[in-house]
Amino acid sequence: MHKSFLVWAAALGALSVILGAFGAHKLKELVPPETVSTFQTGVTYQFYHVFALLAVGILYAHLPSPSLIWAGRLFLLGILLFSGSLYVLTFLKATETVGLRGIGAITPIGGLLFIAGWICLLVGVLKK
Q1: pLDDT one-digit tens code per residue, 71-128
Q2: CB 58 within 8 A of CB 114
Q3: 12-25: per-residue pLDDT in tens?
Q4: In the chain, N or C terminus with fewer CB closer than 10 Å?
Q5: What's the rounded Cα separation, in Å, for the pair 81 and 65?
Q6: CA 84, 4, 65: angle at the middle one, nearest 5?
């Protein structure tokens, strides 16, 4: 199980760099500054949680526990919902698409998943 978290961390880490470069260079031409800031928040939190996934993968190899598996799963879902929803909002703004603005309600759910992941990581480390 830990290897899959390491693979996800590597892939999402590379994607973080790609998205960060896009946000820093090209996105400024497409959307207003506040939307660039929203996008950058998604990239930043994705990158933070890539390191959390790396930690989970490494720790699970030495301290296997269901709590660590849940931590990794919650970090992955958190990235998908938190960062993903911010990317979608940015895309909607860039394309001037109307009708899906409610997607922003998903962002706090992703944040809660991040918090739950950190708590699971804590529990997994303290149990051993």
Answers
A1: 999 999 999 999 999 999 998 888 877 666 678 789 999 999 999 999 999 999 998 6
A2: no
A3: 999 999 999 999 98
A4: C
A5: 25
A6: 105
CA–CA gap between residue 14 and residue 80 (Å, rounded): 15
Q: Which residue has the tokens 């992955």?
A: 76
Tokens of 35: 């939307």
Domain count, the chain: 1
- What lies within 8 Å, CB to CB, of 81 at 6+ separation is 106, 107, 109, 110, 113
Query: Domain limits at 17?
Result: 2-127
User: What is the C-alpha to C-alpha distance for residues 68 and 111, in angstroms, rounded to an integer?
Assistant: 18
Rounded CA gap, 79 and 59, in Å?
20
> What is the Cα–Cα distance from 112 to 110, expressed in whole angstroms?
5
For residue 49, the tally of other CB atoms under 10 A from its CB is: 27
Question: Do residues 51 and 66 touch, judged by C-beta distance below 8 A?
Answer: no
CA-to-CA separations, 48 to 20, 63, 65, 94, in angstroms, rounded = 13, 22, 22, 25
Q: Which two tokens stand for residue 36?
A: 């660039």
Residue matched to tokens 């990158």: 47
Q: Strand, helix or coil at 124?
A: helix
